[in-house]
Please model this.
Amino acid sequence: MPALSGRLARLAAAAWEGVASRRTRSGLAALGLMVGVAAVVLMVAIGQGTRNHVLSQVTALGSDLITVWAAKSAPTGARITTSKDKASLSPADAQVLGRMHGVRYAVPGINRSQRISAQGVTTDTTLVVAPPEIFAVEGHLPVEGHFYGEREERLAQRVAVVGPSLRQRLVGEASLVGQTIEIKKQPFLVIAELAPKGLDPNGTDLDDRLYLPLRTGLSRLLGGRRHVDYITVQGDGSYSLDQLQEEIRALLRQRHRLTEPGQRDDFNIHTQLETIQTQEESSRLFSALITGVAGISLLVAGIGIMAVMLIGVRERTPEIGVRRAVGARRRDILVHFLLEALILGLGGGLAGAALGLGLAASVRRFSDLSYPLPWFAAGVALVVSLSIALVFGLWPARRAAALTPVEAVRDA
Amino acid sequence: MIHLRGITKIYATGKVTTPALLGVDLDVARGEFAAIMGPSGSGKSTVMHIMGLLDRPTDGSYLLDGQEVTGLSDDALSALRNQRMGFVFQSFHLLSTATALKNVLLPFVYAPRYPADAEERGRRALTAVGLKHRLHHRPGELSGGECQRVAVARALVTDPEVIFADEPTGNLDRRATYEVMAILQRLNREAGKTVILVTHDNHVGEMCRRVVRLVYGRIESDTTAPAPLDAAALLAALPPREEDRR
Model:
């Protein structure tokens, strides 16, 4: 029916005039939706950015890693705890694990807080005492120099690899490669600097570290200690992490003579996957919270639209009456006011989406979060704001349509 | 054209029922110029609202050109109002945010088909009421008399058979009253429009050929004046306005 579609276009024009001629009121009615939609879009973007950030940190640590800790209780998160009194893991355990089917590397290591000095500056840092494979397992690359290898390890040479944060604290932008660092009054030659990795999910600076070969550390700094704090295992992909974890557990129990089923492990196995899962869980919770808050704010915005429209219908009763008198049918009035609500919803939604995208773009620019602009979320929020306008506009529109011409037109 | 038989209207608000019309029989022929008069509460506006299909009678029969309209759907009544009737109200009821021309074009929004020459017709209607120079003024920029003339233009833009005017001069001064009445008389005389107006102003009644008086919801008298007053002549006899003298 072309006549009908022409009529709809005329009603839309009339609705547009109704909205456009009441700028302040329409603006206020749409403001709530705008703020709600902008908040949703921004929060989706930041949520995505946070998730990406966490994932990149976890990936930086190696998401396919299994860490066996010499401890009776699991470390919280990925925090590195030294356990001096636990002598359960040895480099020999690492060797055996390294020969397991499905394992690419099994790297023993010790982490400890240590006072060091270089060029007259003294500071505390985390000492990572581990064989050369640690660089492959943790995915490190040198920005300068070469990592230590088998030779330095075997000869227990006094060489070290420095992280960028530590270097920054010691000598600023200058290079430490080729310089010496003093640890417990012994000089260590810095042979390489690591590429930056940033913070781990717990906020620990992965770049504030100094790496030494395992034998160097054990014999020269730790008084000939024979055990290690942890063994980091990287699979070769032929087993799932869960399977590999169970294989490792069985093998270590056997080696540690924990043959009775009632005996507890003297080690703990932790995977990066667990960290990811924990983080995913908390980001899901965060998203649910945001969605809830956004829902409430959009609901409030909808009520705002309804209130403004109800006042409008009351105030415009004579206008409705004269429209009815000159031939508007009930459904013309209904459609007219629904269209006004939709225009408010569209205006508020579009303004909110634009504002949200703009804020998301500037947050991305001025923070270290990275995320794609949430166009999809903006689209969804726009559709939601249209639906809200429609739902909350329905009652006022029905009230307008229910007026009989004579009660609308009667002079007060 | 209009045949009312036994039209009754009873307003029920809660337990109280207020009778407004108690059996009105009234015929209006095409081309008549009729005033419905009476004290307030006599039902004069109610009878006009019923004739104008703005309200439904509680009981009775209304034949419009031989068609019984009391049982018609709301949509059908809307279509009849749109195509065959024009309305003028005491307080003008113009859209305050729209120009005079936009106001005049309002009935076309609800027409089955938007005429291609709508704007031209709107201009002609405004020209006919002497507001050719006010096309793009908004009601706030017009005098009361001019507003009512815009309303008259809106009532005649669809070229209806009958114009209903409810106290059209109730808010106007003497000069504006004559202006509006002169236009209505001319439309009746030259274009053959049927005009039915409600008024409590006896002077306005004197300008109408036929006067129907209602009291307490019943027709008390129905008289036809052989020579009603000519509003245009009355207007011309008024002393010139301040701005005209300057």
